[in-house]
Design goal:
Number of helices: 7
Order of helices and strands: HHEHHEHHH
Number of strands: 2
Shape: elongated
Helix content: 55-70%
Distance between the termini: 78 Å
Length: 155
């Protein structure tokens, strides 16, 4: 009804979607859990940091309503023995996001370690296996060089 629209449109409020306010996702989720939890006996008190991180990475095409629906589904499925929402409580598509993120982090760590290993081997070759000289070339202390060599399994 157009008359209702004009009555409600006296002071327009422009509230951006939660995907544009990532810092607000955790407080909104906690508020929703507290409100929804009243209907479930209020046994859930927390959301794990890992779940909050997943929530902050997700795009939320359904905005707050989608977040509310997911939290409600999680609360229905929890058995009442746990007071914290964890990754295993999430729907499959969000759990898969956690696995993908973990794999990307692992890949980045492997690339970094491989690059560091290659650099150390090259510097050791250039220095004629002289650890003091290699450490000076790298600009690190000799004990730091030994630690890196041990970490990267370089003899």
């Amino acid at each position: 009804r157009s008359d209702l629209y004009y009555r409600l449109n006296v002071i327009p409020l422009d509230i951006p979607p939660i995907r544009e306010r990532r810092d607000d996702i955790a407080p909104i989720a906690m508020h929703l859990v507290q409100n929804l939890g009243k209907g479930f006996g209020g046994f859930v008190k927390n959301i794990s940091p890992e779940v909050v991180a997943i929530f902050e990475r997700y795009n939320w095409p359904g905005n707050v309503r989608e977040l509310s629906n997911i939290l409600e589904r999680i609360l229905y499925s929890m058995d009442g023995l746990e007071d914290t929402i964890k990754i295993e409580h999430l729907p499959l598509f969000l759990r898969n996001m956690a696995i993908e993120h973990e794999n990307k982090a692992r890949i980045l760590r492997d690339v970094r370690d491989d690059s560091e290993r290659e650099a150390l081997i090259n510097v050791l070759r250039i220095s004629g296996n002289n650890k003091n000289k290699a450490a000076r070339i790298l600009g690190i202390h000799r004990t730091a060089l030994y630690k890196k060599m041990r970490k990267l399994n370089i003899s």
